[in-house]
Amino acid sequence: VSVGMSMDIASIDTISEINMDYTATIFLRQRWTDERLCFDGNKSLSLDGRLVEMLWVPDTFIVDSKKSFLHDVTVENRLIRIYPNGTVLYAIRITTTVSCSMDLTKYPMDKQTCTLQLESWGYNINDVMFYWTRGNDSVRGLDTLQLAQYTVEDHFTSVTEAVYETGRYPKLVFHFELKRNILYFILETYVPSVLLVVLSWVSFWISQSSVPARICIGVTTVLTMTTLMMGARTSLPNANCFIKAIDVYLGICFSFIFGALLEYAVTHFCTLHQLSSKDAPDHTNKTDSNESKQTSSDRKGERNQHSGCSSAMSVMKRLFCIFDCFHVKNPYHIDNYARFSFPLSFIIINVLYWVYYLYF
């Protein structure tokens, strides 16, 4: 028996990234010819849906369906129409939740390709054959469909076979590509994160002596960015295999905000180090005068007493030598460098980020 199929997509209610599925309401129509139902006349005969139990119908099922139900208000939404030549039209209205494997590495600039697979449960290819009645035009309704976060870019149909241990079974597959609308995420996540990064740069123009003001800006922006990162992950699966594009961007923004806080810590440390170095010569002269008063025998005793700590002191001296290489003559210039380097680096990284995720 050759069974032709067509569908109308009434609605796609939800597309869940957490559960990796979508819920759709479809009108499924199946046509086949049963010579036993031929009758004289030139008009079709519409029958009550309850007569389905008395007729042969294909045992079609949705392969990746998690749960489905047939609408029954006010009666079961079934249609049986028989034509004089024995052709039977069987139409039903189904709401089904179908799994859809999603690749979220480019979220929210991603495109997802989902499928709806129709397959025969018990009849193999020797018993029935499935085909789309009008090819790619067999599925309608997607052109007028309005989705909250997605736009249907393309859709097509294919005919294949399912191979199991029990045999080969006919299968029809409907493919449709969904493109996520990024405007919502730009207003909800990207713009606030950029504003937080810019807010963290305000501390570069505040005097270094205003410790509470600069620390308050740094800590506040870090905590706010952490809250924004946690809120962006609530609607996504906690899968380690997905490093999403939005996670990368939030991580970049968090690094810049945290770097602005560390910049003030380094600046403040260098300022204190510079002030202490000014007092170091007086302290050195006093210690030198005290050391000159010691006898040679006392120096030998101290060398023997502290011989166990000589290796540790040498290591510390080497570390101090390394730190001296990064010595800043004027700590107040660090803010001037940060005012230029932080925005320039952020702009360059943004250009690389958007070019990579939009065009590669």
Automatic annotation (TrEMBL):
UniProt region (Disordered), positions on chain: 278-306
Keywords: Cell membrane, Chloride, Chloride channel, Disulfide bond, Glycoprotein, Ion channel, Ion transport, Membrane, Signal, Synapse, Transmembrane, Transmembrane helix, Transport
Described function: Pi subunit of the heteropentameric ligand-gated chloride channel gated by gamma-aminobutyric acid (GABA). GABA-gated chloride channels, also named GABA(A) receptors (GABAAR), consist of five subunits arranged around a central pore and contain GABA active binding site(s) located at the alpha and beta subunit interfaces. When activated by GABA, GABAARs selectively allow the flow of chloride anions across the cell membrane down their electrochemical gradient. Pi-containing GABAARs are mostly located in peripheral tissues.
Database matches in InterPro entries: GABAA/Glycine_rcpt, GABAAR_pi_TM, Neur_chan_lig-bd, Neur_chan_lig-bd_sf, Neur_channel, Neuro-gated_channel_TM_sf, Neuro_actylchol_rec, Neurotrans-gated_channel_TM
Topology in the lipid bilayer: Multi-pass membrane protein
Annotated source species: Serinus canaria (Island canary)
GO MF, one annotated term: GABA-A receptor activity
GO cellular component: apical plasma membrane; chloride channel complex; synaptic membrane
Signal peptide, first to last residue: none
Name the UniProt record assigns to this protein: Gamma-aminobutyric acid receptor subunit pi
Domain Neurotransmitter-gated ion-channel ligand-binding: 1-181
